[in-house]
Amino acid sequence: MNNTPTRLIAAKRIAVAVATVCATLAAPAYAADDVKNVLDLMLKKGVISQQDYDQFMKDNADAAENKQFKEQRLDKDVAKSNAYILKNAEAGQVMKNGLGFQSADGANTVQLTGRVHWDARQYAQGPYQDRMEVRRARLGIKGQLAKDFKYEIVGDFGASASSSTGSDTGMSNTFTGTDVAYMDYAGIKDVSVRIGRFKMPYSLEQLTSSNNIDAIERSLMGQIEGEVVPAKETGAMVFGSPMSGVTYAVAASRGRANASAVTSTNDYIGRFTANMGQLAGRTDIVAHFGLGYSMGEAASGTTMVSGRTEAREESAFMTGAALTSIATRTRHGEEFAFAYDAFKLQGEQFNVSYTETAGSQRVIKGNYIQAVWNITGEPHNYSNTAGTFGGLKVKTPFTMNGGSGAWQLVVRHSTLDGSDATVTSSSKTAGASAWTYGINWVMNENARVMLNYVRTSFDTVVVTSGQNLYNQDAIVLRGQLAF
User: What is the pTM of this model?
Assistant: First the structure.
């Protein structure tokens, strides 16, 4: 019975000793002397053995050494990082895509841009020359200055749209110095100002970049750039997006040649678009509607229409009449697009009217409608602040390890009626329609391959090099790189 209190006291001492040692081991390194004093006392009183004493001392020494090492390494890393930050505080940095630079504060940027479109065309009828060519080769820069000033300058090294009936050397090179060159001021909310050479605000199809159009070439009306459809011209523009899903733009243009040979006065061009899906709160649906309008004067002698097929054959299957006097030229177009999930339906109606001072009026009409299905399920990339479609965001970019890229099927029907604006001829036609069928392989955001079959039907027989043509069938292949 007398041993029980003794054992209890010893157990309590051991428990206290263990708790004390554990606490002291977790203490800062500067308390090592206190730990040693406690352990010395416990050893002297017989609370712990010499073996326990030695082990406690070793553990405490290791813990202090590890903590000191970690603190020294952390201090060294922080100092190194601070020194690097201070050294490079004023330096810029490479942009995420590796093709440009931006200042440290992000206010100034310069980015390299470019595209190469390589085409191969084969025609089933007529004297048209099968060919391979560099359809587009452009290189330029874009970016911003002082955050509010945007700019883009692009040079064009591609082929012209000359006749496919020429020699097998391909289309002539027509490098003219610039494709686009403009500057924006974007320092006012919802209002931007642009001056220079740029795409005029007219037509969903025309404003969609050639890197992102669904078929290899634009529709029959879209082929007549600058006359029937405003294109890249020199002028000034005010544009913006007052709310997400609504856009506006108003421009004054000197015409495609920036000379009185095409226009006697400035053209005034405007476009308004609305995405009803966005306005209704349905971010999964694009219900785009747009209106474009242009008014100005066309000089005497202006050729009103010159047809080119969607297979890019330009042997003048129609002969455009020339204006005999100055005429008021008005152009208006209606556009729509509906996109849901991987499906898109898009179309436009074009009307061009010339009212000559002598009183006669000439009208050119045309339209297109197209359907696109992204087989691999990608949604269509619509910009609510620009009112246009951008490049496809590929779910699984193509790689040799199994990525498939994105695949699309495209079908389009387009028409051109120039009966009011052509020269009557037994060998030319006044109108045409075309079906385009395509399959696109978008390998990634920078590369795609396109294959189109284009069948053009002429309203009347076309006689070229002694051959009677009612249709033109062509297969077109494109390889594309863009950044």
Answer: 0.78
